[in-house]
Amino acid sequence: MLDMVWTPPGIMQVRVRVTTVITAILLLLCVGVFHVWLRTEITQHQYAISQLESQIRKQTYVNKQLQVAVARYSSSDYIERVATKRLGLQQPDANQVITVAAQ
User: Fold this and answer.
1) In angstroms, how far is CA 75 from the centroid of its own chain?
2) Minimal CB count within 10 Å: which of 10, 17, 23, 57?
3) 0.85 cut: is pTM over it?
4) C-alpha distances in angstroms, 87 versus 79, 80, 82, 83, 90?
5) SS (H, E, C) 2-22
6) Going along 2-73, which residue ranges are E strands?
7) For residue 6, what pLDDT band results from cuts at 50, 70 and 90?
8) Average pLDDT, the chain
9) DSSP, res 92
10) Are 83 and 89 in contact (CB under 8 A)?
11) In this structure, what DSSP letter does residue 98 have?
12) Cα→Cα distances 67→31, 43, 53, 59, 61, Å
């Protein structure tokens, strides 16, 4: 690294300063590239999070719709209505009901 050739004293100081400036520029360049890469990664992750939150909202809406459907279709009024109108069933007469005692 050190030259063994005699140089005037001012030349050595210029070389040190140029090396320091180049090192500082390279360091700043590396920091800048790292900063840009980091911001890009953060933006990509924010986009992915946004998409996942959108999917969560959609699935929550579908879940609520399904809960409403379960509540509607499991109500005794709905079951009775479907049994009488669609299936043609009727309420049993008193003599058609048989009570079985559990043992």
Assistant:
1) 36
2) 10
3) no
4) 11, 10, 7, 5, 9
5) CCCCCCCHHHHHHHHHHHHHH
6) none
7) low
8) 88
9) P
10) yes
11) -
12) 53, 36, 21, 12, 10
Residue 78 · residue 72 · CB < 8 Å = yes
Q: Which amino acid is at 44?
A: Q
Beta strands of the chain (E only): which ranges?
none
Map tokens 């079951």 to a residue.
Answer: 79
Encode burial over 21-51: b for 16+ CB neighbours within 10 A, e otherwise.
eeeeeeeeeeeeeeeeeeeeeeeeeeeeeee
Q: What is the dihedral of CA 13, 14, 17, 21, to 10 degrees?
A: -170
Q: Give the mean model confidence (pLDDT) for residues 39-51.
A: 98
The answer to whether 47 touches 53, Cβ cutoff 8 Å, is: no
